[in-house]
Amino acid sequence: MHKLLLAVALSVSALAFAHPSDTPPAQRVTTQLAVTGAVEHPLKLSVADLRQFPVQQIGEFPLAGQGGAKRPPLKNVKGVRLRDLLERATLVSRDHNDVKKMAIIATASDGYVAVFSWAEIFNSPLGDGVLVFYEHDGAPLADDEGRIAMISTQDARSGPRHVKWLQSIEVRKLAD
Ligand SMILES: Nc1nc2c(c(=O)[nH]1)N[C@H]1C(S)=C(S)[C@@H](COP(=O)(O)O)O[C@H]1N2
Ligand SMILES: [Mo]
């Protein structure tokens, strides 16, 4: 009985303290991207679905690692504009000022989150460079980043909004 209680206590505390980023990369891999929240048509997109959107290609994209660690650049990145996905999903906008209050929240399977504003994506040149990508260097994304990820190519530093293991894009109105 004692042993059972101990085992239960240990497994409960292991669950409580398990941080998603402790999980091996292969278990973080995402194969579908959900577009959810304040949208008329929620989407669930596989890599094959993403390939149906207009392809955006980037010859070379410099990557920053944690704490500025050097990373080899991504070459021949292939993906789709976040704006194109959001246009397909169609933001819910009852009042024409609604969109201006919206945040676009990108979440990864390890709990990592990066945020964009409606204005960045839809009313700024920055939005042209926000890509959901599924291929670089002639291959699908490997376990340490894939199969679906995101980059914001116009950011000053690539790290913060380079979302590996991208899982969902949520549109949320932040103010009434
Ligand atoms: N899913 C996910 N993506 C992420 C992170 C993360 O912890 N989880 N870290 C970010 C940060 S802060 C950096 S600098 C880059 C590079 O991280 P790396 O050095 O672990 O490759 O990935 C970004 N993307
Ligand atoms: Mo970082």
Account of the 3D structure:
With 176 residues, the chain is α+β, with helices and mostly antiparallel strands. It has a single domain, classed as Sulfite Oxidase, Chain A, domain 2, CATH 3.90.420. 21% of the residues lie in helices and 32% in strands. The chain has five helices and ten strands; from the N terminus they run ααββαββαββαββββ. The protein has helices at residues 2-17, 25-28, 47-50, 82-89, 118-122; strands at 32-37, 43-46, 56-61, 74-81, 102-108, 113-117, 130-136, 139-140, 149-152, 166-173. The longest helix has 16 residues, at 2-17. It is globular. The N and C termini lie far apart (55 Å). Mean pLDDT is 91; it is low at 12-18. Ligand MTE binds at residues 21, 64-66, 69, 108, 110, 112, 159-160, 162-165.
Indicate the topology.
Elements: H1 2-17, H2 25-28, E1 32-37, E2 43-46, H3 47-50, E3 56-61, E4 74-81, H4 82-89, E5 102-108, E6 113-117, H5 118-122, E7 130-136, E8 139-140, E9 149-152, E10 166-173
Parallel strand pairs: 1-10
Antiparallel strand pairs: 1-2, 3-4, 4-7, 5-6, 5-10, 7-8, 7-9
Bound molecules: ligand MTE and molybdenum atom.
